[in-house]
Design brief:
The chain is α+β, with helices and mostly antiparallel strands and 385 residues long. The protein has three domains: 5-10 and 78-227, Reverse transcriptase/Diguanylate cyclase domain (Alpha-Beta Plaits, 2-Layer Sandwich), CATH 3.30.70.270; 13-75, MutS, DNA mismatch repair protein, domain I, CATH 3.40.1170.60; 245-374, Dna Ligase, domain 1 (2-Layer Sandwich). It is 42% helix and 22% strand. The protein is built from 14 helices and twelve strands. The protein has helices at 13-21, 45-50, 58-64, 75-90, 111-115, 119-134, 146-156, 170-175, 187-195, 201-206, 209-227, 258-278, 311-325, 358-374, and strands spanning 5-10, 30-33, 40-43, 69-72, 96-100, 103-107, 138-143, 162-164, 245-255, 281-292, 297-308, 332-344. The chain has a five-stranded mixed beta sheet. A four-stranded antiparallel beta sheet has the order 9-12-10-11. The chain has a three-stranded mixed beta sheet with strand order 3-2-4. Helix 4 (75-90) packs across helix 6 and helix 12 (258-278) runs antiparallel to helix 13. It is globular, with a radius of gyration of 24 Å. Bound molecules: magnesium ion (MG).
């Protein structure tokens, strides 16, 4: 039996998140700017129409399109919305592969009986449920392999949000698709294909298995079968917990001020620890990093006596490290925090002298619940001496 796979892709995701938080931004030319390079990384439909380009440096965009609205990226916010979209998706099928922050594959094979609807109608239901629960619009592509589902989702963007490539329409669809539009076909493969006169995806599948395998290897051959609607790469619902967590960002206006740096570091610790707690993990090693104005990097790590995900404990250790690398006569441009040697609940050892008191854990859980209710960074640790 052929599998039925859908790719759910949030539309202009970062911008949409900003518009949900600040509804007055809806219908306006909005651009989200990356923290480190200061480039446009997301645009609303209106900003696209205005002509703002993806990756355009902020200072150029601002000069060229002074009427657009520019917003600094808030990645924790996008993580939060992403999780809500994915959670909603998981209520429709257990087989969800979170592919990126704003895209997920979902295996819908067999759900037709469950819902008593065809697959397009099921996807309409998914789309409206996500909209109701998160206020985020998604485009959904449906087909029989991940590669075709991805292609369908690209087409869905301009065709009302849902697009299906059924078995009988595959060849017609491939004929109208340039090979460069296919998922996984990068610049190099595209140049190779052009050289051999493979211009459309249909030209590609006409090549023999032997030839593709010889010229492009196993992946090249698998691509052909994915394009034919065979599910070679299945939807992998298991997501690996992170091996380490880094939080870094540029400091607004370079500084030597230790209080500014401490406050930045404190934010990083908070974000890193909440992420660790979301995964039910603990870290046994912490590190801190400072980058100077002229790009020298200073960093230092420390092994902890016992694993923790409690931010006040982590902060105590990191502040010590920070003071050992900080120098008041240097100017710093960015800072970061690293949590490493992570362990997860099922593999955790018992520590006889466990000083992470029940009180600390309760406090951490409480912080998480408050954030869930009132939004990211609605609560954070203050300074204590
Ligand atoms: Mg998207």
């Amino acid at each position: 039996m052929k599998r039925v796979i859908a790719l759910v892709d949030c539309d202009s995701f970062f911008v949409t998140c900003e518009q949900v938080v600040e509804p007055t931004l809806k219908g306006k030319p909005v651009c989200v700017i990356s923290n480190n390079e200061g480039c446009v990384i997301a645009r609303s439909k209106e900003a696209k129409q205005l002509g703002v380009r993806m990756g355009q440096p902020y200072f150029m965009a601002k000069k060229e399109f002074p009427n657009a609205i520019y917003i600094k990226a808030e990645h924790e916010r996008y993580d939060w919305f992403s999780k809500r979209v994915m959670d909603c998706l998981k209520t429709f099928s257990p087989d969800v592969e979170v592919y990126s922050i704003d895209e997920a594959f979902i295996d819908l094979t067999g759900t037709r009986k469950l819902y008593g609807k065809n697959y397009t109608e099921i996807c309409k239901m998914i789309k409206s449920e996500i909209k109701t629960k998160t206020d985020i619009d998604v485009s959904i592509g449906i087909s029989h392999s991940k590669t075709l589902a991805k292609l369908a989702s690209d087409k869905a963007k301009t065709r009302g949000g849902i697009y299906s490539i059924g078995a009988f329409r595959i060849k017609e669809e491939l004929r109208r698709t340039e090979i460069s539009e296919v998922w996984g076909v990068g610049r190099k493969i595209n140049i190779f294909c052009q050289k051999w006169g493979i211009l459309s995806a249909l030209d590609y599948i006409k090549r023999s298995d032997d030839w593709l395998k010889k010229e492009l290897g196993k992946n090249g051959l698998e691509l052909k079968h994915e394009l034919l609607g065979e599910c070679i790469s299945s939807v992998e619902s298991k997501t690996e917990p992170p091996k380490s967590i880094q939080k870094t960002s540029a400091i607004m206006g370079f500084t030597s001020d230790i209080n500014v740096i401490k406050s930045e570091i404190s934010k990083h610790i908070h974000r890193a620890c909440s992420k660790l707690r979301r995964w039910n993990g603990k870290c046994s090693k912490v590190g801190v990093m400072l980058r100077t104005k002229d790009f020298y990097v200073y960093s230092r790590y420390k092994d902890l006596l016992q694993p923790t995900n409690f931010e006040l404990t982590v902060r105590k250790e990191i502040e010590e490290l920070l003071m050992s690398i900080y120098s008041p006569d240097k100017i710093y441009r960015s800072s970061g925090v690293m949590l490493e040697t992570l362990s997860y609940n099922d593999s955790e050892q018992l520590y006889i002298f466990d000083s992470t008191s029940e009180k600390d854990e309760k406090l951490a859980k409480c912080i998480d619940r408050i954030e869930e209710k009132f939004g990211k960074n609605s609560i954070k640790a203050g300074y204590y001496k």
